[in-house]
Amino acid sequence: MTSYPVMQLSGASRLECPRHTSGSWGWCTQSMRKARLQELLWMLFISELQAATEPHEEKYVLAAGETLNVQCPFSIQKYAYSQKAWQRLMDRAEPLTLVFTTSVSGTPSQVRMGRYFLEDIPSEAMLNVQMTNLQVEDSGLYRCVIYHPPKDPDILSPLVRLVVIKDPLGTTVSDKNPTQNLAQISTLPPTTTKAQSTLLNSPKTVTQLLPKSTADISSPGLGVNITNATDVTRYGFRVPVISIVILVLCGLLSKSLVFTVLLAVTQRSFGP
Amino acid sequence: MSAPCALLAWALLALLGLGLGGPREEPPNPCCPIVPRREWRAPASKCSKKLRLPVRYVVVSHTADSPCDCPASCLKQAQNVHNYHSGTLNWCDVGYNFLIGEDGLVYEGRGWDTKGDHTGPTWNPISIGISFMGNYMERSPPRRALRAAQSLLACGVAQGKLSPRYEVKGHRDVQRTLSPGDQLYEIIQTWPHYHE
């Protein structure tokens, strides 16, 4: 008498096909494969849900060659006289410090280290970060920190998930920033803030019309943020928000569609 | 086998819908009436700079001025603040996006869409500035005023003016100032969206 194992859709199902006649064994392995596939899909689905509920990162999606601008606020009371740093979080290693400020005087300071640029404005409780000429390899997780080695750094908000995509149109985006020196240049600030603002006219995008050559995303919205500067200035502020919402919904709906399609396919291909 | 399959697909979609929910904080109808500009007889705003929505930060300050605890006196006080900002300081409008009175009412200032003049050049374009009318170094605002402020912020999220992950900061967190006063500062540090 042949007995067939009970199919379980989730959980640990130790399915073993009894070695019987070729016909039933064939059907059994097929069903087993189907069940395993379904288990896998369920696991993927659940892990997606879990990912959605973990602590958030701000996602920045930019094309290669563009410039990333991030604003990291800090407590003026606690950190006006502290050094700050921009770090990249690595998979199985210590976070990599890419650039750090050296001034502890409580006055504005700027530091450039290759493509990385930091501007610390203690009087405004803001740290401005800039990464120019982005490469696809720059994609990853970054953070602003209060830097006081050997103590562990204090982490500032937001965590930055950077995704750099290859420029689909092949047009290189011109970079408004000056030459990229490899040596760390620590510029002690001029006494007037006016001189500072002229030096940094292009990164400071929130208070003026966005320059068209860089895609600066300093006040990110709900998630994936691909706003064109010209769209914002031409159509007002409602269009980018709606497009962001639509993009997020489409992304999430497409995942659910993928799962249902895969399940339907497994049902049909392995079904009796 | 197609019926269970369809059922499974719908269950997936329903679960995903729930998963999409995320942090749901707003009650059924989160927006409560506030005192609009016309009601407190505010002159037309001459401000033109807009905020990029949704806004990520809320800066809480105090006017450090006289308090008011009745609707009539708070209406007068809102006018006073406006006169000071637009007249003496020659600003395009009252500096705050919203004012909170000890009468428990919210007074519309520049509103959700217009950049305020409440914190400084870095924070004004990226935050909503709300100010409690009074001086809160030695005393706290009454609870009805705090509730009014919380209700306002919940409304902002519901209307898409504030990011659901907005952060509340005290004025003294981002500027060298005593505002919003020791007592009020202690209170806002307990708010769920407060982030130093």
SSE topology sketch:
The complex is a heterodimer of chains A (about 270) and B (about 200).
Chain A: H1 22-53, E1 58-63, E2 68-73, H2 76-79, E3 83-89, E4 96-100, E5 109-113, E6 116-121, E7 126-131, E8 140-147, E9 154-155, E10 160-165, E11 184-187, H3 193-199, H4 229-235, H5 238-270
Parallel strand pairs in A: 1-10
Antiparallel strand pairs in A: 2-7, 3-4, 3-8, 5-6, 5-11, 6-7, 8-9, 8-10
Chain B: H1 2-21, E1 55-62, H2 71-88, E2 98-100, E3 106-108, E4 127-132, H3 143-158, E5 162-170, H4 171-174, H5 182-188
Parallel strand pairs in B: 1-4, 1-5, 2-4
Antiparallel strand pairs in B: 2-3
Give an account of the 3D structure.
Chain B: One of its GO terms (biological process) is innate immune response. Chain B: It is found in: Secreted. Chain B: Residues 1-21 form the signal peptide. Chain B: Belongs to the N-acetylmuramoyl-L-alanine amidase 2 family. Chain B: Residues 32-175 form the Peptidoglycan recognition protein family domain. The complex is a heterodimer of chains A (272) and B (196). By secondary structure, chain A is α+β, with helices and mostly antiparallel strands. Chain A has a domain at 57-168: Immunoglobulin-like (Sandwich). Chain A has five helices and eleven strands; from the N terminus they run αββαβββββββββααα. The model of chain A is unreliable at 1-13, 50-55 and 173-237 (pLDDT under 50). The radius of gyration of chain A is 26 Å and the shape is elongated. In chain A, α1 runs antiparallel to α5 (238-270). In chain A, the strands form two sheets. In chain A, strands 1, 3, 4, 8, 9 and 10 form a six-stranded mixed sheet that branches. In chain A, strands 2-7-6-5-11 form a five-stranded antiparallel sheet, with no helix packed on it. Chain B is α/β, with parallel strands linked by helices and 196 residues long. Chain B has a single domain (34-189), classed as 3-Layer(aba) Sandwich (Lysozyme-like), CATH 3.40.80. A five-stranded mixed sheet of chain B has the order 3-2-4-1-5. Classes of the chains: A alpha+beta (272), B alpha/beta (196). The A-B interface holds A 45, 48-49, 52-53, 56, 71, 73, 75-78, 121, 123-126, 157, 206-207, 218-222, 232, 237, 241, 252, 255-256, 259-260, 263-264, 267, 271-272 and B 1-2, 5, 8-9, 12-13, 15-16, 19-20, 22, 49-57, 113, 120-123, 125-126, 160, 163-165, 167, 169, 172-176, 195-196.
